[in-house]
Amino acid sequence: MSRMRNVTAAAPSNRRRRLASGALVASQILLLALPAVSASADDTGQPAPDRGTAFMGEGVLANEGIEGVPVETRVVQTKGVDVSSHQGNVAWSTLRKSGVKWAYVKATEGKSYRNPYFAQQYNGSYQNGMIRGAYHFATPDTASGTKQADYFVNHGGGWSKDGKTLPGVLDIEYNPYGSTCYGKTSRQLVSWIRDFLKQYERRTGRDAVIYTSTSWWKQCTGNYSGFAATNPLWIARYASTVGQLPAGWKFHTMWQYTASGPTVGDHDKFNGAPDRVKALANG
């Protein structure tokens, strides 16, 4: 999800971010240095970042770029953010005062990475009156969907009906470490996603939210429509409108509409008033 830096304490020095070459950059975006490279490269030929450093929307930004600064719509929208280790210790009280009502925090990636700032970010948002949840960055080429769902639930991705805990999110998007579709066919990826979602529901009693972009979903799942009836959609599109949604979904629940500067995580809107955010938390 998010790729921004710490607002109160220095984030790890090797947590740098990549932006798409030639992308139009909105006023909120900062161009930062490339991350430490690994031995492999992604489909664009760019050096791959270190494992574990992926954030929600990294692949979307690199592959789809930015189309413009978002505009407001007539539908009531509720401001939110998503953060990862790139933010370090977040100043949640400042974000709360700015009107942010909800937040998602990266908990895990694959079946070995845990966000070292998770406790401060997850608990801090809660303590400052936000409704918050956790997300898992999927790497289908490293372990099964079932194993990654278990790892997520075991390390921060659980759910409780306290009115302030949102269901977990499966962040499934462009692979920042290699092949766009993780070396899998559309059928194999759909099966992987299904295994993750089923195991998450078994463990928590909740249907996970799916975070993705329409372009990636079409390319890598064959625009599969089978999850729309049960799993809320968090769409990633850095433009003035949400645009076309993946097959099956009639509407989006959340929209990541732009990446931002170093003071906060990526900007998001919930498609409804604050009471609808709480309704999602309560299940």
What do you see in this structure?
It is a single chain. The protein is 24% helix and 18% strand. The strands form 2 sheets. The chain has an 8-stranded mixed β-barrel, surrounded by 4 helices. A two-stranded antiparallel ribbon has the order 1-2. It is an alpha/beta fold. The chain has 7 helices and 11 strands. It has a single domain (37-282), classed as Glycosidases (TIM Barrel, Alpha-Beta Barrel), CATH 3.20.20.80.
Summarize the structure.
24% of the residues lie in helices and 18% in strands. It has helices at residues 58-64, 92-97, 118-127, 145-154, 186-204, 214-221, 274-282, and strands at residues 37-41, 47-49, 78-83, 102-109, 113-114, 131-137, 169-171, 209-212, 233-236, 254-258, 266-270.
How many separate domains? Answer: 1
Strand segment tally: 11
Supply the number of helical segments. Answer: 7
Q: Average pLDDT across residues? A: 82
CATH top-level class: Alpha Beta
Share in β-strands: 15-25%
Estimated structural class: alpha/beta
Overall 3D geometry?
globular
Give the strand order of the largest sheet, numbering strands 1, 2, ... along the chain: 3-4-6-7-8-9-10-11
For the report, how would you describe the main beta sheet?
Answer: 8 strands, mixed, barrel
- Share of helix, binned: 10-25%
CATH topology: TIM Barrel
**Any low-confidence stretches, pLDDT <50, length ≥5?**
2-39
Radius of gyration: 17 Å
* Succession of helices and strands: EEHEHEEHEHEHEHEEEH
Beginning-to-end CA distance, first to last residue: 23 Å
